[in-house]
User: Fold these one by one.
Assistant:
Number 1:
Amino acid sequence: MRFALTPDQVAFRDAARELLAKECAPSVVRAAWDAPAGQLDRGVWDSLDAMGVLALLVPESDGGLGLDETYLVPILEECGRAALPHPVVETAMVAAPLLGAGAGMVSTDLGGPLIPCAADSDVLLLRAGGGALVAVPPASVSLTPVAVTDRARRTATATATADATATATRTNTEPATDSRRSDDEMSQVRSVTAATRTNTEPATDSRRSDDDVSQVRSVAGTNSEPATDSRRSDDEMSQVRSVPFTRTNTEPATDSRRSDDDVSQVRSGSTATTTNSEPATDSRRSDDEMSQVRSVAGSAALVTDDAGAIERALDRGALGTAALLVGLGQAMLDLTVGYVTERHQFGKPVGSFQAVKHHLADAALALELARPAVHRAAWSLAHDAATAPRDVSMAKAMASDAAELAGRKALQCHGAIGYTVEADLHLYLKRTWALARSWGDSAHHTDRVATAIGAHSVQSC
Amino acid sequence: MDLTWSAEEERFRAEARGWLEANLAEWRADCGGEPASGDTRDGFAQHLRWERRLFDGSWAAVSWPSEHGGRGASLWEWLLFEEEYYRAGCPARVTQNGIFLLAPSIFEFGTAQQQAGILRRMAAGDDLWCQGWSEPNAGSDLAAVTSRARRVDGGWVLDGQKTWTTRGAFCTHLFGLFRTDPDSDRHRGLTYLLVPLDTPGVTVRGFGRLDGDEGFAEVFFDGAELADDAVPGGVVLGETDGGWSVAMATAGSERGLTLRSPGRFLATAERVVALARERGDAGQQRRAATAWMHAEAYQLHTLATVTKLAAGAKPGAEASLTKLWWSELDVELHELALDLLGPEAEIDGPWSKAWQFALAGPIYAGTNEIQRNIAAERLLGLPR
């Protein structure tokens, strides 16, 4: 038993904190409020990318850092503390394990119907019919900006995702054996490969057994399967091996004439279809090609329709958001401690009055007890603990409550000065309100915990 | 970060569980029915037999060295023991004020003779210690104590009054603060004294707490003559006139994890969750989950604290936050239990009893208002 960050984890977190303090001052957050859609400044984002934060969860063999959530979550706390106006949870926590490194800035509609930073991102990760996740370029969908309280969220809604789904499905069910395969297709496949794997051979054998599948999973250095392309490189193999999820689609997907009926079946999630029917065959494929994904208009790639993988992605999103909330709460508490120490009334700092002290002690208490819950959930996800979903929900519920409490206390203790847009407090406060209700609110996650611990009677389930 | 218990720790847990389950059943059988409250005269005697059983099995003070009656367990093992203790439904420790509040100070400030003469008898329940801090006009403001000790040849003469002394009517010894420098004020000139309650000139009067049990006492000192050797190794703990720092060390223990380990709240939370499942509506079931999370968070926070202590850190002002958390958690848990029981909540049973006790939590060991001040000033750095 040792419940503390390791020196490595602390060093990483501190480096991120330092970077954010330098490059994500409140002025940067304010600039995000006013930048036109698609013109969000990426300075701090690129620095985080260079530091490896965005691909931290991606295996080293696939260009990431190969670390786990116990490293990333403390960094996300720092991102919350800085009110970073970029979709860092969506990208690093949700998309990176699904899409691999180099997907760019990813926005999602998984945390709610609204999509933060939609117009500024390189990839949108959307939920299609039947719950499947698809990746689409922002240009391929119709984005409608939404006026929200925290304009740094740069929120929009997306429509036409159903078409995107259909495109993705058709693309992925075709046997990809055509040597004239276009660059467009390749980039689609690349993104799909990263997410759906296991179908590393032409899926023509309906008798494929579980043994075969586990063989695929355990390939270590040598390819035990018939490779369709003799030029297949080691790089590609490692790509295949390194994909984090282990879906086991055993259905042959060989019919290129798949009908519209089939497609609608896919949309409604009624069958276990699809996925890329072949490994990518171009050994020269580089990360550069990933950037092509960004420019593919009107196309979409199925990322996964595996319920377990999607559930895990949602858990990662909830936990990452919980980490942001703890950081936001801490930022608001720190701001307020500074303010009430300087602000004098009745000839004394207002922070010397017990009423003010008690408000802030309550905020400190809630954050102090929420933080271990967030760190524990990170450990549970990293170790694939059976309690991980419960632990994530506990973290999100407690972090949401703690950050909201800290926000209320902070606003109250700032008095009228806090009730202005000139003071920085509202930058953190409005983010808190949004995130506390994103990726499942406190009540949703509390009910999830209630189910996990058996507080629900059979009747009320 | 490693959130797993080692095989050795799991063995320790299994051993504790086995022993507790077997001995609890035997003790309850000995009591011939439901044991009475440990804060009544009959119940206290029953609970002393339980304490004796714990001592005989070397479970009375697991983290103490074996020479003093413990088993040299690590802080981690102590946590596991506490978890198993409350999970099994073992009774409240009537010896706790000695074992958990005085003993840490004896280990830190006591001489070898004091340690040898006091600790083992404490663990065995031979000497029963109560805390003599509060006075009628010194509650939250502990530094306002006026009970005094005048130095005479071979000892001290005590005058004054202590009150709200938990289980004082059943105990044999008192530890407390007395003003030994008559010209001093506030926290200077106080001495931490160890006083046998059968000292001539000491009168103890028990009185009813909110729950009706004789769990409180007031203790009068009327020229009580306390000999230097009334306690093995001497009656002064620490330095003469230097009692405040000793008392503050004890206060840290009282607020922190040694008084209220997470195990008792985890166990209560499990029972409340079961009650909510049986008879709660959806809202109450959600409240049960919230309370359960709060207990679990206290456990996690404690694991982080013990990690720091195991690495050599000293407990600090964080104990004030901890005290706020567990005391309010205890109220939350029992309030929900009462709501779940509905009209039956007024039946004088374990839940109503525990509810009334939970309400004392935000008051004893330094009121929660004092703890919020401490947290704001020492952790957040707000001006005094």
Number 2:
Amino acid sequence: MARPSRLQALCAGAFACCFTATAAAEPAAGTPVSFLACPIARDAGPEADLCFFAEYGGVRYGLANPPDWGSPQLKHRVLVEGRVNGGAPVCGAIAIEGRASVLPEIDESCNGFIPYDGVVKGAAGGVFNSGTPEQRAFAADLARRAAADPRLSVAPAIPDPPAPPPPSAPFEARSLVITYPFNSDRGPGPDMVALLRLADYARISKARRIYVVGYMASSRLSNGEEIKESASMAQRRAEKIAGILTGVGVPEKTVQVRWESQPIAGKGEDDWRNRKVELSLQP
Amino acid sequence: MPASIAYDNETGRLRIINASGGFATKGHAFFTPLGPNGRACVTCHQPADGMSLSARTARKRWDATNGTDPLFAAIDGSNCPSLPQAERASHSLLLERGLIRIYLPWPPRAADGAPIKPEFSIEIVSDPTGCNTDPQYGLASKTPTISVFRRPRPVANMKYLLELPHGVPPSDVLFYNDKSLLPKNPETGGFASLQLMSDGRALTLKIQARDAALHHLQANGALSKKQLDEIEAFEKQIYAAQDYDKVGGALTGDGAPPGLGPAALRDGAPARLGNNPINRIFGSFAMWADPPVPTDETPAAKAQREFKRSVARGAELFYTRRFVIQDVGKYNDKGLGNPFKRSCGSGCHNTLLMGMDLAPGYMDLGLNNMPWANARPDLPLFKLVCRPDAPPQSYLGRVIYSHDPGRALTTGKCADIGASMTQQLRGLAARAPYFMNGSAANLRELVDFYDRRFNIGYNEQEKLDLVNFMSTL
């Protein structure tokens, strides 16, 4: 007896399969995908967050962005861009390495929600459940102490991290690339933290120059259609980043800003990487 | 005013602590009328009401003075200054809902006074107070003005509102929502926390005091530096919280939850996350969860024990009961996803000891915007139409009906329509009604709103437990 394909296994839940009319061939690892679709939210259990997937060509793709890149939203379509990565299923669907961008306009038809049915079970999140062994040990010790002394429950458990040592000479050139969701100038939190560190480095090292270059892009969908970002997006991204740098004390005269007025043409493969701001620091 | 003073309320007693010690209120800028209408800051920020103003206090003052108390000043203590001021009905929003008229220029103005080009137009759909259509005070007047009606926020526990958030980088520098820079505090040059006001239109206590003196107190001239310093110093050192319950007894002291009472606030660390297994927003209530039952327990002692157990269950519900949060503008769309699943405490009310959203959290809970708002025929209703090129409100689009556009009246942005800043949850028992538009007359109505809005499905016992829990804060 032949083993069920991963797609068949993913569709084992009867209710979950309501969204898939016909089974399609499972794409091979490395296959690029780029499409617009409604995300479907799925409850992954009482202790877990919701997860999202989207369907294209009869195949379900899990939507998992990096932290704070922007999770999918019902009432909005998503632009899904990535490559099948052959990894463990995400939200009960095929995992891709890539990004899902929320489109700003409302689409009332995007309202798919699967209540918890036990088919897809998520793990509880948070540093105390999924942190490093050191973090878990720290949390467990705190929990023991707080149980013995309830006053600790209102004393901050997570102290401010010590300030990193200031950079010292010799100072070196540094660079940073920030990528963005489609038609958005909202950089994700971890990238913004990196940006603020770069600003600190620039101030302390008295950098001669920080070059900020903004880009916008088009995306080539798998069906051949091309979608473009707003004409001002490269400028908006670049000026926002430059404004943050000067707002936290980087001398304005050292920040050189420009943007590309033409979008980078999409090829249908990893087009999300073209929506970006590039920074380079010269000591 | 003594260093420590308690005030009775419906469920128990609120205690005020002046951390700097007792002082004479006579001549003090916070307690002295600073304008011709006879009002002082304290008129709307009453110590007995947790430094806010309850509708009950407003009614008592009306009855005691036949409406002549400065609280009922025509400018904003009535539904509209053009109404007959001697009539009780002209002050119905203040008397029934504890609402003060907030009148804002349209289009909005930036901090430097420059007009902001709004992304939306405003049409008045209904105007039960008459103020938005009033020829002198309304939208078509010589000085176009929008009138909305809001609750006075409590002026206590301020260090928690003023300090920038810890432990949630980069939210000490950037807005969580769009990762733009926080505004600068003009007095320090640093960034401002934005927690102070529901719409963020005043960034510091001094700016708020100047604004309040000009509008609420109708002061003729600017406040002096001495007056501003005195008001700010007072507001920075006052702490307020419930410390006694009529059924549950003392809420502080040996064996009590460590987060209750104003001393915990005075001694606590501000602007920290409380949504982890150790820090549970208002601290541990485990000591009340299952206390031993004495063999000779009196009925009063039993009632006290049962109340404490109910409070502990309510705390656990608040901290851990997750529900699906959907279509909250400026919340689900700030990267979290729509829907998003969190508890009260791990979602929007995560600041240790206080319960605001630590990363400055403007959001449209649905209090004022259709279709979620409670029926409020007593409030004006506006139709807001956003420009086609403006980013829409994420879940309501570009045509929105609202009783109060909230933050959008300050920024002019379509996406901000209906959004307001979460507020602290301390001293609740002293300052009903709740929500910025006073739409919950009591804590039960507050719980019912959330239950309906997010389809949580609390049962009757759970609702009672949550009410009891919040009444102890």
